Amino acid sequence: MDDVTKGAWVFHHSQKIADFRNGANQFPNIDFAGKCGQLISAASQDGQSQISQDQFAAYARGCGINVRTEMPALIQELERQKIIERVGATIELLGMTSKSILIHTARIFDEASPAPKETASIATAETISVIPKRLSETIDEVADVIRLPSSQTASLIKECSEFGLIDSTSYTASDPILFNGNLFRSENETKLSAVINSLTSRDMSKVNELDQVLRQRGAVPADIVKRVLGEDLFAKLHSIGFYDVSTIVNNQGDFAYVTRPSAFKKFGNSFLEDSLDLAKAFVASLTYGMQKSERSRGRIQMIGALMSKLIQGRSVGPATAIGEDYKILEVKGVVELTYAQGGQYYMRLKKREVGELALSVINSGDASLEAVVLPRTSATSFTNPERSRSAQRKKENPALEREVAAILNDLRTGVKL
Question: 3-state class of 268 per DSSP?
Fold first, then answer.
């Protein structure tokens, strides 16, 4: 496994264990390396930069890092890695791309001497990311990678499952099928066909109908998707990662929309391409700006021209909407906002590759920016597709779990349970 892939899994796992009360203690090196990566991602930009220590602490708080108890150790490690340097009251940062962030994250993880279960969690995730596999065959493969006895490896995989780092079907309890949400991030027609062919003719027709809409529009509100598919079929397919659901949260509620998992694929694996979830957040925020920002406060009229200007390194604005609609992107370090006057702000793109990827998704459908209907209030947080899928898995009932197991088995072997 290369360092980019390993770093992506460390990032993925660190976000998953954050949902468990004792997750950080059980997987301390994943938690530490993941937080280092999150902080680098938020604070850095394309070229070498310098920010105040107060700004650096603000980025840490935005990542959910305790600035008193956790940040000193993170700073020490980032200095050791020569990623940052403290100069008086400022911090100098190397210029970073998503790929370099993932490489550094993997290096920090490796140099921390991770525990066997942490190494097993990464190896297992990669093993089952292409195709679902039975526990029995996964144990043998992972045991060979981490060089531990099969009995010990089985115990480690079980613990990883308990903390949500991998998914398993409870229907076939003696030898469950293991999988994760990365199954459909590469546009593999064989896998897509295997899932569709496992459905009834009526459900197959619904999925094909929705696929045409998604290919034309790029993104579709989740409530519309549920009307097309029905609640049960949507839940079943969402839980295995057949669809991505991203959610904008503001003071009026949660507003979700659906995309194809491969929508964020630019050159290869969509999981690696936007493993930091920055382009997903950018698409959500731009859509918000297109849909509900009034023209008088700076509603986006020509998305192509605006994005071209940002990608060229120029600032856009000033506008009132910039200071209100892009808070998520500012916290994630994707853009930098500068106050002008009268409540108006300028915006500059800090991460060019994120802007390019977001624009490629926006342009994937003729009506992608008209697809998502959001309320006219500032978006305050973003829920990524993996967290949304995990929440769906927790809602599953025995009947639905059996249907999920059947789809995964068809995908794995082509033989119906």
Answer: coil
The string of pLDDT tens digits covering residues 46-89 is: 888 999 999 999 999 888 899 999 999 999 999 999 999 999 88
CB contact at 8 A, 332 and 62: yes
Considering the domain boundaries, does residue 398 fall inside one? no
Q: Per-residue pLDDT tens for 130-140?
A: 888 889 989 99
pLDDT of 43 higher than 70:
yes
Give the CA distances from residue 271 to residues 76, 305, 344, 358, 397, in Å, rounded to whole numbers and listed in that order: 29, 28, 36, 14, 28
Q: CB under 8 Å, gap of 24 or more: what pairs does 187-194 form?
A: 187/260, 187/262, 187/265, 191/131, 191/411, 194/410, 194/411, 194/414
Q: Count how many Cα atoms sit within 13 Å of the Cα of residue 106 in the half-sphere of its side chain.
A: 16
Beta strands in 146-203 (DSSP E): 167-168, 177-179
**CA 137/CA 74 separation, integer angstroms:** 38
**Quick check: is 402 in a domain?**
no
| Nearby residues of 313 by Cβ (< 8 Å), 6 or more positions away | 348, 349, 352
Are residues 372 and 252 both part of a single domain? Answer: yes
- Judge if 94 and 227 occupy the same domain: no
CA distance 23 to 292: 38
What strands lie across the sheet with 167-168, from one edge to the other?
133-134, 177-179, 167-168
Residue 69 domain flag: yes
As a whole number of angstroms, the distance between CA 171 and CA 198 comes to 17
Q: Which of 351, 343, 340, 341 is nearest to 310 (CA)?
A: 351
Answer yes or no: are the C-beta atoms of 307 and 301 closer than 8 Å. Answer: no
Q: Which domain holds residue 19?
A: 3-168
- Find the radius of gyration of the CA atoms of the chain: 22
Please tell me the total count of domains within the chain: 2
